[in-house]
Write a structure and sequence with these properties.
By secondary structure, this protein is an alpha+beta fold. 24% of the residues lie in helices and 47% in strands. The chain contains two helices and six strands; from the N terminus they run H-E-E-E-H-E-E-E.
Length: 131
């Protein structure tokens, strides 16, 4: 009997592994603390879009946001760092993922730290065999 697949392991985990080549902390889900520079994989809305429902397979389109975050120490330097991080994320994306637009950078406070962040929309397809 084949090992069952899961979205956590086979999609978010695989995406996080692909992103591990970027010079940043990579999180496959939202962490309690973010250590910049960072890539955080977050479910988007809609999260799961059913494309096939049947007796043996369920296929869904999964939508994510990858939030790229850098320390916000100086506007020009932070923006340059964020742009470099986004480009490295785009270069590390695995085959089979569709990457949409990068949203406008914004300043976000996480704990005591100010971060400059930008979101990249990403989607892929996942098929789960049912028993």
């Amino acid at each position: 009997m084949p090992t069952p697949t899961t979205i956590s392991t086979n999609v978010r985990g695989a995406l996080a592994t692909s992103l591990s080549s970027v010079v940043a902390s990579v999180y496959s889900s939202v962490p309690e603390t973010v250590i910049p520079p960072a890539c955080v994989i977050v479910p988007d809305s809609p999260y799961l879009e059913s494309t096939l429902i049947g007796k043996t397979n369920v296929k869904v389109k999964i939508n994510f946001v990858i939030t790229a975050a850098v320390a916000y120490n100086s506007n020009a330097g932070a923006l340059d760092n964020l742009e470099q991080l986004v480009i490295s994320i785009l270069a590390a994306m695995p085959v089979g993922y569709v990457v949409g637009d990068v949203q406008r950078p914004t300043v976000m406070q996480v704990g005591a730290s100010n971060l400059l962040v930008a979101d990249l929309s990403v989607s892929t397809y996942y098929t789960q065999q049912t028993i």
